[in-house]
Amino acid sequence: MRKSKAEAEQKQIFFGEPLLYLLPFLIGLLIFTVYPFLNALLISFKENYNLMTGAFTGFGWGSYSRIFSDANFINGLKNTALYVLIVVPVSTVLSLLAASLLNQKVKLSGLFQTAYFVPMVTSVVAVGLVWKWMFNYDYGLLNYFLSFFGLAKINWLNNPAYNLPALIIFGIWNKMPLTIILLLAGYQNINPQYYVAARVDGAKPRNIFFRITLPLLAPTIGLTLVVNTISSSMVFMELFPLFNGNPGSAYSLYTIVYYLYDMFYNQWRLGLAAASAVVLFLIVMVLTIIQLYIQRNWQNY
Q1: Nearest CA among 174, 78, 79, 172 for reference residue 123
Q2: Domain ranges of the chain
Q3: Closest by CA position to 165, among listed 78, 255, 82, 256
Q4: Cα separations (Å) of 106 from 94, 103, 112, 176?
Q5: 88-146: pLDDT as tens digits
Q6: How far apart are CA 1 and CA 175, in angstroms?
């Protein structure tokens, strides 16, 4: 009897003390994450919801049917999907190449690593203004390089046909710093003995990369894909410096988050804003689950 009582007290201490440490985090999570999401979910089903009075006419699917019949939201879905499908894989491949080069024992490798990390701690707006200058039609750096190959200038920021490619180029560059750092950390966790043994057996560099490096980097690559997919799906801040706060030069470059912002802050249609937020959450959740499933079956070591 005494033994069971002592065990119960030990269990209470074991579970109680960690919970005490986690309590501030859990409270913050409930207040700033769980509650806003549940509130947005509830608002998305309220018909004709008024933020000031809290009044609504009833519950229904009206907000969802309206956004899916809104050309701007459909345009936002398409643009966001294209942005994610191009930016995430291209930035991952380029970052993998850069990380493999940075992982080599070369002079000034620390300087190069710092240079790749600097854009991560720089304001997106400040970096966007630099890219706005690079995309400039008359004296931009990109058009200057195109002239070397005898190609015509491209009106990146004022021609709607080139607005999305400009945003994608900026997005790829913007995603690379964090991806490179994560992949470089994955590289440095690989035991060098694997490479020594492979070279002793006469393995070629190509086989070493695909048979050793890539499988051992699979968890890190999976992590970067999930992180970049989530962040790319919420593309929003990049539009402001490039297009002066507008969704493209002819309002043709809506994204899901910009549509949410427009419905909430400009048009005060909270039901549509909440519905678009829920749709974005579901899309990101499905993509993340698919990626985690693929990653789990990819690990073959």
Answers
A1: 174
A2: 2-44, 69-298
A3: 82
A4: 19, 8, 10, 21
A5: 999 999 999 988 888 877 676 677 777 777 777 778 888 888 999 999 988 888 998 88
A6: 60
Residue with token string 């997005």: 171
Contact, 129 vs 240, CB < 8 A? Answer: no
pLDDT in tens, 178-235: 899 899 888 888 888 888 888 888 888 888 888 888 888 988 998 899 999 999 999 9
Q: How big, in percent rounded to 5, are the helix, strand and coil portions of the chain?
A: 75, 0, 25
H helix or E strand, kind and range, residue 204: none
Q: Could you tell me which CATH number the domain at 69-298 has?
A: 1.10.3720.10
Instruction: For residue 282, give the nearest of 135, 274, 98 by alpha carbon.
Output: 274
Give the residue ranges of DSSP H helices in 103-159. 109-117, 124-134, 141-148
